Input
Amino acid sequence: MQLGTDIQRAKSLLQRGELVGIPTETVYGLAANAFDGNAVAKIYEIKNRPQFNPLIIHTNSIQKLAGWGIHLPAQALLLAKHFSPGPLTYVVEKSALIPDIVTAGHDSVAVRIPNHSLTLELLALLDFPLAAPSANPSGYISPTTAQHVFEQLGSKLPYILDGGACNIGLESTIISFISDMPKLLRAGGLPVEDIEQVLGSAIDKTSLINNENPLSPGMTSKHYSPTKKLVIGLVQDYLDTYKPNEIAAIHYAEADAYLPLQNQFILSPEHNLNRAAQHLFAAMRVADKLDVKLIVADNFPQNGLGFAINDRLKRAATT
Ligand code: TXA
Ligand code: MG
Output
């Protein structure tokens, strides 16, 4: 069986330089021993990932990071106390132990302690960190179930740890601590409001506005995209161009009166943005497989996880 919960098997594959699909609370990752440059090279190959786009390394403790020469500055440590394990990634100074292929030649490294029991158990057994991007072909929607990983990368992977559906459903929030003021590089599964509340001050969000951002090479304006054309707006504005059965809709809380119900995905009838985030990527995948020509998505409220949901939809809508 290629899918399962056998941590020992995952461990021995990783020790041998093989790749393993791993669950996290955000999205599934495609993991390799971060100290093994040849194993990490396979990640780029299997995902068809551009060589300039660095990877996040994952472990289960700050102490282990320190042992590998990676130190979190004071503000990052404060956030870690509140939010790690959790959907927050820290960009800090790299140590010599981390191969250049992991950081795509940058002097910084992105680190995260994911909050998923199965993966935390696995990480506790390892004396190396796991380099792991989202387990999707580069540019496509991130996977939020083991089945999503299996469908797209199953033929190239010896094993996928099946930890069920991801609790958060959006990739981690990324903050850089390289300059004095913490900089938001990617909106994600931890709302910015929560981060600012703990820090007691605002963080720098200017690099999100400039979306072909050299500080965060993966944040290209087009990303997270279904194969079908996706637009953000109102279904009724597209009925002149498309027939109702040629459109799928991704709605926050309510169905519209224009499309067949089987073409509509309601992410959270109770208007809960966390719920909506959990279901977003799975809905985009199913919508992409329907026999339609267009996917219309709602504009979400800009607070809490709505900020990151809108970010992903905007990138998905970029042509
Ligand atoms: O939730 C997540 O973060 C998931 C799970 C698997 O942990 N991982 C994930 O990885 O989303 P990936 O590779 O799909 O996205 C990582 C992002 C990319 O945009 C990359 O450019 C950025 O992190 N990144 C990695 N290292 C960096 C660095 N040293 N400086 C700036 N950005 C970095
Ligand atoms: Mg990704």
Residues 273-289 form the longest helix (17 residues). The first strand starts at residue 3 and ends at 4. The chain is about 30% helix and 15% strand.
